[in-house]
Amino acid sequence: MRGLGTIINTIAVIIGSGIGLFFKNGMKQKMQHILMQACGVAVIFIGITGTLQGMITMHNGKIETKGTMLLIFSLVIGSFIGQMLDIEKWLDGLGEKIKSAVRVKEDNQFVEGFVNTSLIICIGAMAIVGSIQDGLKGDYSMLIAKSILDFVIVLVFASTHGLGVMFSAIAIFMYEGSITFLTVFIGPFLGNTLIENMSFVGSALILCVGINIALGKKFNVGNMLPALLIPGVYELISNFIK
Length: 242
Known about the structure:
Layout: H1 4-24, H2 29-55, E1 56-59, E2 62-65, H3 68-85, H4 87-101, H5 110-122, H6 125-137, H7 141-161, H8 168-186, H9 192-215, H10 230-241
Antiparallel strand pairs: 1-2
Helix pairs in contact: 1-7, 1-8, 2-7, 2-9, 3-9, 4-5, 5-7, 5-8, 6-7, 6-8, 6-9, 9-10
């Protein structure tokens, strides 16, 4: 059944968040802080691994790199577009609207929890490739693996950031669901190269999110999201030139 992976991932986020909220009041501030740092380090290495997998190849027994210029152009052009659109402001606004709707105005960490968690569980190779596989073949095995990882992440985040984390389930449902739905129709026209390029650019953004979690906000990752679209434009231009 196509789309089942998205449903499983969404449920995992809701349950993990619920458990994290249960432990919130019983967890000391120092424990919350160290768990956030640990989670940030884990996300950093997930981002590094995904990026290197897309950029490093073996040729005649030698390590070579590829996609360096694509990564640079994707991040620079994508960030420029995102800053012009001010996507992060829109995400913060969405978080504030949800916060008001559920009447938790006193929760100062609601928006931060919603935005940061949404970025972490949505961006990256597993979300993109897993949703595409689900849409193409009905193979949701990668999204199940991602669900386990997300379960742990949101459990920790909910214990430190509160209710906002649970509402990231909306973001994951819309994001992965949309990719799966679109892939059903356009998937046969997507090449493996494009999928790989989108994945490693997404992993680079995950690295930035991890740094934000571990060290405090250093990158406006929301405004960098259009970088995920640049590999598609690059592919179109390359095919046109050929």
